[in-house]
Amino acid sequence: MSAPALPGLSGVTVRAAGHTDGLPGVPPRWVALPESVEEIAAVMRASAAHDLAVVPLGGGTKRRWGGPPSRCDVVIGTGRLDEIVEHTAGDLVVRAQAGVTTEALAAALAAEGQELALDVPVPGTTVGGLLATGIAGPRRFRYGTPRDLLIGVTVVLADGTIARSGGKVVKNVAGYDLGKLFTGSYGTLGVIADATFRLRPLPAARAWVTAGLGAPYPPDRLAALVTAVAAATQEPAAIELDWPGPDSGGTPSLAVLIEGAAADERARAVRDLIGDGALIADEPPAWWGRLPEPAGPAGGFLLEVRAAPARLPGAVLDLMAAAGRAGAGAAVRGSIAAGVLHVALYAASAGAGLERVAGLLNPLRSRIEVAHAGGLDGRVVVLTSPEAVPPAAAPDPWGRESTRRELLRRELTLRVKERFDPDHRMSPGRFAGGVR
Amino acid sequence: MPEVQRSEALGRVTARLGELFPPDALITDPVRLRTYECDGLTYHRATPGVVVLPESAEQVAAVVRLCDEHGVPFVARGSGTGLSGGALPRTDGVLIVTSRMRRVLEVDIPNRRVVAEPGVTNLAITEAVRDQGYYFAPDPSSQQICSIGGNVAENSGGAHCLKYGFTVNHVIAVELVTPDGEIVELSEQDPGFDLLGTFIGSEGTLGIATKITVRLSRAPEAVTTLLAAFDDIEGGGRAVSAIIAAGVVPAAIEMMDALAIEAAEAAVACHYPAGAGAVLVIELDGPAAEVARQFTTVERICRDAGAFELRVAASAQERTAIWKGRKSAFAAVGRISPAYIVQDGVVPRTALPGVLAGIDRLQEEFGIRVANVFHAGDGNLHPLVLFDDSVPGEGERAEAVSGRILDLCVEHGGSITGEHGAGVDKARFMPRMFSADDLDTMQLVRCAFDPKGLSNPGKIFPTPRLCGEVPGVRRGVHPLVESGLAEQF
Fold first, then answer.
1. Chain A stretch 94-133, residues whose beta carbon is closer than 8 A to a beta carbon of chain B
2. Do the Cβ atoms of A112 and B372 come closer than 8 Å?
């Protein structure tokens, strides 16, 4: 079949969409494969002229994340935007096009003894997808998340406008930071064309201190342990908790990454601090830097739970107890000292349906999302729901809209969306909370 | 709006403020108003129409709602230490000063956070937690008096941001009053657009922070400060490049050239090595074992790059002595020049030699002296452009040199401001760095937050974008009304 022309567009590779292109449930008509920022702009102008809805897609590894789009005519695949535009090792800065995978980027940087200090937990993630979802891994504790390492960005708006902000210097406060605005935007504000990051030298050495904690492990003790390790003057780069579901043994363990000069010596100090059979290894545990996976046959929900670190152990223990009562399993893993955990919730037995599993969500939200001196603390986001749950029956991915201040925040989000995409053609529905 | 109408509107707002605030929280006396006519950048001045000193977020919101209702511009001010005129008042507007919002609301060590009101000083946050081994990492040189609210507005850095980043990397949440007078919370926990990160560094144009939750850093186990003297700036530059290439990330690397050293010696007698054409102040911090190894590396690199003298601070006192010259440098040039302009530009570190050579050429071309002080690790230059304001034309030539330095920065892929902000001072330089489309796109954010353009107008952007109609976001019933939390608002 010959490719149908996307009206008003020439010179850009466009093919007819197949059934597996695009996001679940909303088959697109065209897949455009631009090779430059100007070609992205051309696709956007043509789409604008014909009121076509556009969804940018990188590796497609998180196409099930976020809300399903309400419509999708054109997928902009960033696969051909796979060039590392500039890497000046002496400046510790790299600029890469959106379609470069984080693996390819890491390989190129490693050749110069440098790295982007993010441990992206989903293989095949592109630079664009990294920013659009804002995901990060264990070392968020020390180096932050994509928004903290991003120093410049080029974006293309719904009407084809090409805009840049930031630049290629680490220190820069000129103008608004559009890179931050687009971080976590799930393709709803425009297309990320390229990004510039600050880098770090690859650490001279790495050592992991791991400790099995045994069950039952009192939550207060776990909170105190995490606080003590986080306060260690050995500068841990990451402090990760792994608490597998009951069917995999169910006992928690903690792993701490020490990197840089004198890593061994510093790791020994952390090992002595943890005590109780803590071990030093030069390789991470097998689960390190990966998202937990639902163990049940019907799949499950993947949640991101954020709260002040000291509150998390108690909430996790309560969730596990509630899951047990509901015939569900909960596998928990993440950067506990940074206050971010991922939870896979699934039906552990054939008798427990996914609705009962979903029923765990609201109590968890009430437990996590509480008032604090600085405002509301805690947030539970549903990253993915199981395929067996139809979108209409899926729980609200974003949660927390019960207070006036929260609704006002959402209103601000809507106002930004309206200014950037007044016709609601950019990934409409993908980021919920009323963003169409 | 015509002049007369504008002053009438301000008059109505002032009258209403008189009903809402006690007399001691409202300043209308022309003499007292002049106290607030400028911030740290003293050559831009404007007497505010009225000054109000609120004590709570609700009071800030009440003032902003009045301004919104009457179309009167407002400007927020913390301690007034900004160096780009970001807090320059409006003669036709209200200046909202946060100096009475000075409570530290919570210290939460297990979760490494502090909640503070915007008028709390940067240093007061550190002082609240120092005994427990923590500190707030951003350390602008005005940290003894600058406010955390101002740090949020400007995304302040400091000498140690090479390793630790800026305010935006250390703020967990902000409560703010939006330009239409609503109190909203933005948090790093929020999914979706990073509105918190967008707000921080928006220089007061997207609203006023009324409560800030900051993340604390653990005080390092060891700190080593080193002073290295070189014959010339090139030697210092070679050392900086080699340190970075060796994989060492110092907490700070500061450089001063001969003229800046001369000024510092005249002002504070810092006793830097005689005959130095450049000095580097290098600070390493972290675990003692790591710092010890890095120190060996840095020491060797400095000697290889031609350092003729190295001094290592063995105590806190000696560290203070090393930093004394660097920290006094800005004020010190007053000793060697009747007047000066502090510039703030950034270049990629590898472009430093080319840019410094360019600055030398400018000095010759214009007959104007420039003293160089900079955060060498991240390429942030603070050239001090010296002039004599009693010599006709010299001020203009100094202005020209100052602007040309920014051009040099942009030509080399850098920025027109690394930490002072665009404010009113550099709005006109923004088009040298950004295209019209870039600036228009940024202003879409402004239009979303502040469609009437009342929040700190005239800052950052040389030409305000007309926002047009507020788009019809609220198709159907507003969610607040729907959920029973509000009637129509």
1. 113
2. no
